[in-house]
Write a structure and sequence with these properties.
85 residues; alpha/beta; 3-stranded parallel sheet; 2 helices; 32% helix
Amino acid sequence: MPSGVTYNHEIVQLDGEVFTQCEFRDSRLVYAGGETPVFEDCTFVACDWKHEDAAARTLAYLKQVWNAGGKAQVQALIKDITVSR
């Protein structure tokens, strides 16, 4: 459970990690679809978010749904993700 760490120009594996008060600068953040990472009071500056394995397949699936005429369903999912609770 990294706390107060600054990642600068690094590759950071996100799966299953809890990051507290961390700073990510010019880093590649990699999520492979495992346990969801937790970010508590973190900052992100010019990072590259990369999705691999199951995460990449999920995004490819959503793209297929969009292109097959499921635009409304994907937009509803995006709305659900972005609405503050």
